[in-house]
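Q: Here's a chain of 218 amino acids. Please give me its 3D structure as tokens.
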Amino acid sequence: MEIKFYENIMKANDNIANNIRKLLDSKGIFAVNFISSPGSGKTTFLEALIPILISKNIKVGVIEGDLATTNDALRISKFNIPVIQINTGSGCHLDANMISKPVEDIIKNEINILIIENVGNLVCPTGFYLGENIKIGMISVPEGDDKPIKYPLIFNVAKAIILNKIDLIQYTNFDIKKFYDYCRKLSPSIKIFEVSATKNIGVDEFAEWLLEIYARAR
């Protein structure tokens, strides 16, 4: 009975997500679902990424997911782009039903790329399709090099992994070779970006890659 209940939840979510995907496709909008644990630096990374996309004449919209506060949406709003905050309360992830109306609202701004910053969690958000084109995973160096084997799902389904706070690696026992080996065993072709969002290291390379993926999807 519990299995059937879970299947019904996922089926309902996927049906809504498929409708979101059709809507985004009809508008030529490319959607990216950013997933990471809390504190890995997603919002700081977006603060470095968004100006690059804007400089390339890309119109960006952002949906922010958090349990509480509008802090992240306020940080993104300084770029004068459409941003919507979703507070889940006790929910550990966004689902398609939560973002359905915000997506309808945000695409009225004729955006090219929709960025969904999911609730900070490496597990729950990974299993819920939101109608995105790609999932991007992020971890930070202080979290440890064993994240791929402890939380394998995101490394299996993500199009790319951002290893953030690379500037701190000299102060930790993070084994970069071990991290890459773990990632490649889970997903041999996964793209990995070494980044420091605060130092603006590696962000340009990610932006270039993302724009190539976006161009191919048009």
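Q: Can you summarize the key feature?
A: The mean pLDDT is 96.
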